[in-house]
């Protein structure tokens, strides 16, 4: 075959190819061997599916519904290009009795639209918005495999790993963030054998590129011109951007600005003193000296007193994570979470906020049971010893490496304290 990403070479008999693939699929599920003519991209995907613990008789699970789904979709970057995707693919899907689907970077379906009868049939295998179609959840399929390999791909009938999906054929292409190159999700067309034609793969690839082009043209949502941006997650010294200038704050100034940003109404000197210092012997004179230095750093008119308050609105990365968590957009919240808030800070109020934010996010991750999000947290510096997260990850992705790491953590917990 000239193009390994295409399911059928020109002139191939789709009926005969389906029979051959079914025999190959049975051979693989029974003996672990992949006979020809299974494509390399499919064989590798089948192997990944087995390593992820997927069985050929499994089914997709629906993870987001109703308000949670709506909140997550509203926050997702691909929401901005859905009108374009519908314009380019919607009529084709409806007229051809196909489905247009868009998933996120973790293979979770966000939109599934198209011919009503086809949607009803697809619904019986949970090919619906909010369902997880990652390779690690349901094995080989076009949207899940496209985001796994970062390439456009067709999946034809029995190339699907789960038997329930084998009557279908699909083609999908990933959509990348034009600025960072990160995979945002994939555009998919799902239907009958006719989609094995090379044109369907070229079509979804063109739609994905058009979506990337539109994302590049769209002005990213930014705070108003008079709004400062505060970045304090995952760093001991916060960055404050205001009026076209960016300044790195000292550790103490970082703590003060974080607290004042959370209290636009202001804090009294006594309130700030209690929030910042564990040592009750620290005097108001010490605090006033810090505030005087901060006033010079921020510039004239930006720090008022009686009570102490910032005179410009501040948008912080802490507030972004809190908003997304409150809306149920856990993936978006996890994406915005760059690490613990001012991790070296011992200021009592900052430590409480740091713990509350981390606990809220990790609780949502554990409850959501998303293996990719759990893995991201578990392998981050702040999560490498998080026993509860590793247990949750092992429950949904019981690989040998994960089970081994969990065993080490549990043995350390059970060991007597040597000190």
TrEMBL record:
<protein>
    <submittedName>
        <fullName>GAF domain-containing protein</fullName>
    </submittedName>
</protein>
<dbReference type="GO" id="GO:0000160">
    <property type="term" value="P:phosphorelay signal transduction system"/>
</dbReference>
<dbReference type="GO" id="GO:0006355">
    <property type="term" value="P:regulation of DNA-templated transcription"/>
</dbReference>
<keyword id="KW-0238">DNA-binding</keyword>
<dbReference type="InterPro" id="IPR036388">
    <property type="entry name" value="WH-like_DNA-bd_sf"/>
</dbReference>
<dbReference type="InterPro" id="IPR029016">
    <property type="entry name" value="GAF-like_dom_sf"/>
</dbReference>
<dbReference type="Pfam" id="PF01590">
    <property type="entry name" value="GAF"/>
</dbReference>
<dbReference type="InterPro" id="IPR001867">
    <property type="entry name" value="OmpR/PhoB-type_DNA-bd"/>
</dbReference>
<feature type="domain" description="OmpR/PhoB-type">
    <location>
        <begin position="244"/>
        <end position="310"/>
    </location>
</feature>
<keyword id="KW-0804">Transcription</keyword>
<dbReference type="GO" id="GO:0003677">
    <property type="term" value="F:DNA binding"/>
</dbReference>
<dbReference type="InterPro" id="IPR003018">
    <property type="entry name" value="GAF"/>
</dbReference>
<keyword id="KW-0805">Transcription regulation</keyword>
